[in-house]
Amino acid sequence: MDLRSPVTRILVVGAAYALDGVVFGALAVGPPGAVRFWRLAAWVTSAAIFGAHVAYERLCAGRPPASGAARAAAAAAFGAFLLAAAGPARTRWGTDAFWRTAALALVLWPIVTGVPAFVVAWVGGLILSWQGRTADRQEGRNSRTKG
User: Fold this and answer.
1) 77 neighbors 111 (Cβ within 8 angstroms)
2) What is the per-residue pLDDT across 106-131, written as a single tens digit (0 to 9) for each?
């Protein structure tokens, strides 16, 4: 598996989101405090995955902010699709509402997740670009004063 391939990265990161949701969802049982803790843990780990993906696309792969954001959003949308398949669609299996619930979840979850993910990743990519240019300018000033 070549993680340098954008499609492979999208699939692997999307699967990581789904695994994160399934594992922490299974742990989120018991008293309300424990449920809140495990849900917060799921949000924090998902945010870490997302931040790492955005940073990789911008800093390591050298993608422009919009291109990196599209890839990060695609991974988030794919993860949402997998979670929709594992969650609401599975829990309604055999009921009259199965097809309606499954269709809505499988279509809406990726959209509702992917669009905001694109916006956040794009802004994050712009900030990383801005910080990189600021650091480059600062490095240029430092090298001129040393010479």
Assistant:
1) yes
2) 899 999 999 999 999 999 999 998 87
